[in-house]
Amino acid sequence: MSISTQPLTDHPAPDSVLAWQPDGPVSRDRFLADVNQLADLLPAGRHILNICQNRYHFLVGLAAAIVTGRISLLPSTLAPEAIARLRSETPDLLYLHDGHADTIDLPGLAFPAPLPLTDRNLPVPGIPTDQVVAHVYTSGSTGIPLTHQKTWGALVSSARAEAERLGARGHALVGTVPPQHMYGLESTVLISLHGGAAAWSGRPFYPADIAAALAAVPAPRALVTTPFHLRTLLDADVFMPPIDFILSATAPLSEELATRAEATLGAPLHEIYGSTETGQLASRRATATRAWHLLGDARLRPDGDGHVASGGHVEGIVPINDVIEPTDEHHFLLHGRNADLINIAGKRTSLAWLNQQLTGLPGVHDGAFFMPDEEPDDHVTRLCACVVAPSHTAKSLLNALRTRIDPVFLPRPLIFTDKLPRNAASKLPRAGLLALLPPKDKAGA
Amino acid sequence: MTTTPPDSTQDTTPSLAEVAEIIVTALNLEMSPAEIDPDASLFGDGLGLDSIDILEIALVISKRYGIQLRADSEDNTSIFRSLRSLTNYVASQKAA
Predict the structure, then answer these.
(1) Number of domains forming the structure of chain B
(2) What is the pLDDT of residues A275-284, one digit of tens each?
């Protein structure tokens, strides 16, 4: 019986450009040589935490893990407690870094300096489509972390479907999002392996950095970003090289920002909808349509009170957590997000999990996180929390929380109270929580 | 590239108080500008800022002083190490 495989990359020729670095293009041959070099250096153990900051280093690390049958773990946070849990689940775990040494309590391997390219026309390895290549994590509706396995076949189909939808083949991609989270993984890394795109190695931060990164790659180019980065980029009013398309995800994009981005940057803006469980599921051009267009062969059907996704690159049958309304076989409207799921700057978690972390701290008698009303103008909305913890100061409590949760989820404000506004059923009505918030500082706003 | 001036740089315009005011206003912090220790970390267990805050502050600074901040990466935002390092950086860019 033959095993179904897909090549490590579908870039067609040894000199096809698969990525861009400050010193120029990275050919398929260069990439394969770097993958082989790193693969030979990997110590025993099947699991890798790839925290490389350089997107090309991340890509080589992911590929070296794949060709050696290893699994890359992609947690949503590197908080010490999360690392400890990963280590207990996969004791052979090591981490791959490229010099930005985080204090991670694991055996580490530094990304190697490249060797001179001596061989040409290196063979492209075939990878079994059912090989598990990555683990991604969700916090689950009960607050218990769940591991989701991603197979090579599903990731390849997903990347190809996205590339076809966006017309991304041949484009240089500049991403402001990390390669370790689903959106950045799919839309900058995987699409460079399967989909004919080529990712810029850096991760520009300030608006002037984004403009410089775009100027460092040839046209056609695309910007892979978030509503927040897009707004700060437009507000900064820096000179931008021509862009062929813009991609946004992780948070709802206002119609005003979408219109402004397209007018200012002179390029269509596409949005991606997805979840950790399904991966990217649909796209739309917000200035043209409200309806989301399913990617590839993914389909939705009603199930109980909600909907499930299956088919195409979706692995198994996956419940959709948001309120959606299919309009035909390939399109749906998004009516509301699941209030329990939190997504800040592309990092995902759930209120249930955050509440467990908060109430699990020594000295905390009761406590709850909640999301205030959305900030206008594509500003990032922060979580709030109220807590009953008489022995704590704000500083001691935040320091304790910081060891458990990602900093973007730290509450602002953190409100100390004698008693949470629980109703007779011990539930916390939203109105009661919102009433605890201090009035907005009008003068400072 | 990020250039971090030495901490011995004179506190010329803008003043520490002015930049502290920008931070408090841009982020709507519940504290007065004078409460920010000029040498304490703006990240982590100091003021607890993260990359989202830094972009917001950078935007206000670019508007106010007409300078564009640059960094190699999100993790190389050393000019935001403290209020003093940020103020010195802005002063050095203005002078340049």
Answers:
(1) 1
(2) 888 999 999 9
